[in-house]
Amino acid sequence: MCGIVGYIGTKNSKEVLINCLKKLEYRGYDSAGIALKNERETQIIKSIGKIINLEDKLNSNNLITANIGIAHTRWSTHGKANETNAHPHCVGKVTLVHNGIIENATTIRNELIDSGITFSSETDTEVVAALLNKYYDGDAISTINKTITRLTGSYALGILFEDDNNLYAIRKDSPLVIGIGEKEYFIASDITAIINYTNNYILLDDDEIVTLSNDNIEISKAGTIINKEILTTDLKSEEDNKGEYDHYMLKEIMEEPILLENLFQKYITNFSLLPDLSDYEEIHIVACGSALYAGMIGKVLLEEKANIKVICETASEYRYKKTVYDRKTLVILISQSGETADTIASMRKVNKQNIDTLAIVNVKTSTMARESKFKLFIEAGVEIAVATTKAYLLQVATLSLLSYKAIINKSPVTNSTLIKEIKILPELLKEILTKREIYQKIAQVIYNNEHAFFIGRKMDYALSLEGSLKLKEISYIHSEAYQAGELKHGTISLINDNIPVIAIISDSTIKEKTLSNIEEIKSRGAKIILISNEEITDYDLTITIPKVNEILQPLLIAPCLQLIAYEVAKLRECDIDKPRNLAKSVTVE
Ligand code: F6R
To answer: What total of structural domains would you count in the chain?
Structure first.
């Protein structure tokens, strides 16, 4: 999604802004732009495509000397990806960058057109710039306050006024941090953009306006000055740090064993950090995309192993659904970024009804980490590849740990064997990851196809969903996941010669059932690729993984699926770390 950065200080703002913008590339974008400002003028340069295009344009222009500026990567919502629609937008004395969606932009646009204002872009952002310009009376704060009373929707704004040498910012339902340096300040959509310059930051809350000059910061809300705590992050820059790997995705998959070890260490040695789910009669798990599929594994584990009733639902539906909380309920919200608009909205809906919320998140500075009642951090570090791998795995691992606590609360006897398996699991995973040839061999079978299927039952179905998502998002092969028993109710008509079907069998109690489903598909010509924790050699290609306790088993299967998707995308020469149309942090509905 769109990324914002802003700078005011003593350095060359172009250099700083481009460096910071590059750190936001992972969020996904289709165009970029920058506004440089000094006491006399403001210069705007934009380009479509990658930041390198913007840099080329900057290098071929006569740039003003500037120590103030704002910059933006745009993931289009209103209007095509072209230079006119790219940010910054300038109307009269106002130049601004925006992340979010202004829902009443059309109404305001029509009203401004009626009053004689013309627009050059199709964006909701230009509407905000025009409104600010209309209200601007020389007092930036009152102008911003007046403008936001007219806006519905979400926004993080970085604003410059032509006759004023401050940088202003405000947010509502869109993330924004303020970086505090030595005689310099930053604004950014997320902290990773600025950690090369400072580790100190302030988190803005909704409708707080920050005024930055190069030696002062002032934050106000509705005209009242407020003091905010300066926080420090221990995040480290991941810049140019793919190490020996061709892609961040591969690097992040290879980090999984050590991250798992650290996560287990953190929670097993301090068990009280994990909430006791047996306090609840019902659990709802709410998330989007891969986080939702991690939640579906959690549902199987908690229901089957800990006998807790669990409902798992996509956040974009849950937020609008009528939900009756007639039993003691905990709502678990899962999100890597902690900024996914639908998941935040679901959390706020639940918070309003005084129902307990638990956020399983990665980004510690995120809105969800701040606003949920309880939180568990998955400790994945920065995830750069747009398609999640290590964060998804650690979400699953956190749910495994929650199930583990629920199980041993009921039957302490299982504790010692499970603990042993937890200890050796990272080592088992390391071994699985080293067998690169098998994933490359499987990729050879898949990469020339335009369709693929994943099948499994129960937990293996939840894993299939993630395997299928990973394949389609990075390799652009159309892929579907099916419950193994469901395929024959229609979709089997799509099975023809050599179509790859990846089947997962890890639950021995239903192994024979899935094997029958595989036979139905095989007899219609499909190429079967089997992932199982039992030695079954009747198929074209097989990955056999070690058998471990069910609550740990998905942690050995998911990485195989990630590596299959990776190798296929590599053979298809796709832009693996930044797949087309995707955004890392989905901050709009
Ligand atoms: C897929 C992927 C997405 C995210 C989803 C939720 O690889 O990364 O499906 O899982 O957009 O994002 P978070 O976890 O940040 O809420």
So the answer is: 2
